[in-house]
Give the backbone structure.
Amino acid sequence: MNMLETENVDLTKRRILIIDDNPSIHEDYQKILVGQSDSMEIDAEMSEFFGESLPPEPKSQSLQTLQVASAFQGQEGVDMVSAAISQGNPFAMAFVDMRMPPGWDGLKTIEEVWKVAPDLQVVICTAYSDNTWEEVSQRLGQKDNLLILKKPFDSVEVFQLAVALTEKWDLAKKARLTQQELEQLVEERTAQLQQAALHDPLTNLANRNKFNDRLDAALKRCKRGDIGAGVILIDVDFFKQINDTKGHAVGDQLLVQVAQRLTECVRETDTVARLGGDEFAIIQSEVKEPESARIVLERIHNAISQPYQLDGEDYHCGFSVGIAMAPTDGIEAEDLLQKADLALYQAKEDGRGIFRFYDTDIEARVRKTREVEKGLHRAIAEKEFELYYQPIISTETQETCGMEALIRWIHPQHGLISPADFIPVAEKTRLIIPLGQWVIQQACSDAMDWPDNIRIAINISAVQFEKPNFLFDAVITALKQTGLSPYRLELEITESVLLHENDNAFSILRLLQEKGVRIVLDDFGTGYSSLSYLRSFSFNKLKLDRSFIHELSDSEESQAILRAVAGLGQSFAMETTAEGVENEWQLERVQLEGFSQVQGFLYGKPLPAEKTLDLFQCQNDDKTD
Ligand code: C2E
Ligand code: MG
Ligand code: MG
């Protein structure tokens, strides 16, 4: 706000007050300062005060702008000064006579005038020498807005004083206004900076700084008494996708609405913060019993899972929530936050859209996953992987007809790590893409050492289909570089690849199939097992998941499953493999139902590449015997 504008003071109009008991003196001042009188002759009385000097000609423009008002007693002068201030048109200066019987003298008048207008410029006019400068300044203080003018006056001197002092008053006023304006600006800006330093500009929630302060305070209270606190971390599921597909403005709208709903779910003493991106946090202070945290969570869950109005449309959004409680899980802010974060991580791992309370199992699990995550980056750079191969046996000939490549991580400290422990992490971090590429290249190359009738089966993760051209190129390049016939290559995919009706995945698989590559549906029976896949894509083979073989019993039901899968294979002209065959009894059952192939420990565990050659050697030896 501009103070200069709002006060609306017309600064060109300088106002002067004459306080003098002698009426004729007022006329003289008028003549000198305003020049309204036609005759500039000096009358007898005037000459008494102004000596022989003549008032200047009233021609100057600046002269015309001076306004002169009259008071004949000190009290009247003070009243006029204060009335002028309240009308917003204050006097800039006053000429005050020293002696004004019967009322106040000049000194008393000035004292009173300054009480209402401390900045008023004053000229004290005296014809007597009873008050010396020292006496005056002792009484009134050493002020820079006080001058003494001795009678008789010089009219030019009076005029110059009037112009100079009103100008000085004017400048001082302007300076004061500018300063006030600056101070106000600084005040406003400081408030803005304070707000910015502690709040998120988009949602107006507390930011990380304020959140940390409030958490410290809540935990201090916990330490003092038997009251608890909770830290709730909330993440919008797939927020990046919302931003990418609907645009940042819509993403922002969502965040603002989430912020509002969260704020409505908690008490005033709780803190809702946005820690960054799509990450929200709540400090639930003064929790008397853990159950109350659960109640709040349910309230939050109900509020945020209602549809959002985004760009005129209803939008459903999922959230993952992690909670840690003080003092049970920790009493130091950093520790508690870390634990809430672990719980959040676990909520995401467990499928999102859910909430998880921290517990020590979570800690162990998540730490392990994070360790694997870190290790994987290094392992890829250092080539710490090796392919093992497990034979696939034809039930008709009892001979090996293929080998499945199964990756192993040879960890420098922990030794051999099984794929179940790192493939999910590699998928999550997308490291499966370079890793999968290496597997394809290496397996095709190893297969070139085997007899021509042995196929090589390679597992392909759903994540590798996120960049289907990448997969296609990797396969074609590997075939070209190693010289492997595409007819010897099998790609094993699971239902998850086909879950999202991924047209791209289907078309890449078809292209590869046209080139002779065989496409196998792995782990059949564990996913949704929607038979519609079988209609929309002609798989070359179905591999029944090993859990069915493991749980195989004499019961009619378990036999019926085997029969149904083998029957599907025959009807759709697909080969069928039974995985996980560990004993003769299982083999018999599988053979009986008509599976074309088996795979399992009964025939051999996965072997390192160099040992596979012995296998084929034995097979050859058996034949020649
Ligand atoms: P999968 O493709 O179903 O592989 C078969 C798994 O069953 C292998 O486990 C194998 O060692 C195991 N297995 C085979 N016969 C028997 C048996 O008779 N009894 C028992 N109990 N288990 C048997 P492995 O090597 O631990 O691999 C586990 C999974 O990891 C694989 O399941 C596959 O989904 C994945 N995987 C392995 N290598 C790769 C790879 O290079 N890329 C991708 N994307 N996934 C891979
Ligand atoms: Mg497999
Ligand atoms: Mg399998």
